[in-house]
């Protein structure tokens, strides 16, 4: 759940995040595109590197899950500690790459740990984690933090990193 929470929270709330940082309406399109391209690249990169390292150096796949988790933590920390609109480009790339790496590694790790005879039931059960992460973090938490900050600011739009910083601080934990 923690592997997908940050990416889903960023992706589901990117429009309000961009607006709170001074972006223009519709400005989230560039960040969603960057995230998506990095997601695809992360799947390819982490999948290939983990497979190569497993066979060439006997490096277990969970090591690469730690790397993807580190990238996720780094992007969440940057968002929690006061991101700017300019830094959001790099954060979108970093978060997308980590998110894609996570999605490439989880099925392979599940088959490595539990075998192919149990793979379908294990992987199907694991699919509840992104659903819970999306609902819990991207919807409930991000929505309540944004609503609280909107009430505090008293305006029609939330302005500044306080609109989402606490959300990503919780995701980071």
TrEMBL record:
<keyword id="KW-1133">Transmembrane helix</keyword>
<feature type="signal peptide">
    <location>
        <begin position="1"/>
        <end position="20"/>
    </location>
</feature>
<dbReference type="GO" id="GO:0016020">
    <property type="term" value="C:membrane"/>
</dbReference>
<feature type="transmembrane region" description="Helical">
    <location>
        <begin position="87"/>
        <end position="106"/>
    </location>
</feature>
<dbReference type="InterPro" id="IPR036259">
    <property type="entry name" value="MFS_trans_sf"/>
</dbReference>
<protein>
    <submittedName>
        <fullName>Nodulin-like domain-containing protein</fullName>
    </submittedName>
</protein>
<keyword id="KW-0812">Transmembrane</keyword>
<keyword id="KW-0472">Membrane</keyword>
<keyword id="KW-0732">Signal</keyword>
<feature type="transmembrane region" description="Helical">
    <location>
        <begin position="126"/>
        <end position="147"/>
    </location>
</feature>
<feature type="transmembrane region" description="Helical">
    <location>
        <begin position="63"/>
        <end position="80"/>
    </location>
</feature>
């Amino acid at each position: 759940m923690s592997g997908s929470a940050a990416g889903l929270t960023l992706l589901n709330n990117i429009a309000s995040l961009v607006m709170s940082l001074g972006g223009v309406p519709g400005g989230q399109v560039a960040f969603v595109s960057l995230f998506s391209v990095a997601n695809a690249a992360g799947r390819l990169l982490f999948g290939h590197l983990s497979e190569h390292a497993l066979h060439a150096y006997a490096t277990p796949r969970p090591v690469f899950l730690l790397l993807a988790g580190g990238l996720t933590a780094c992007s969440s920390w940057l968002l929690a500690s006061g991101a700017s609109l300019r830094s959001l480009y790099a954060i979108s790339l970093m978060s997308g790459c980590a998110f894609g790496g996570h999605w490439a590694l989880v099925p392979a790790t599940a088959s490595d740990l539990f075998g192919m005879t149990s793979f379908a039931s294990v992987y199907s059960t694991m699919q509840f984690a992104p659903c819970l992460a999306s609902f819990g973090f991207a919807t409930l938490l991000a929505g309540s933090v944004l609503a609280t900050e909107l009430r505090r600011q008293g305006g029609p739009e939330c302005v500044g990193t306080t609109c989402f910083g606490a959300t990503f601080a919780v995701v980071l934990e």
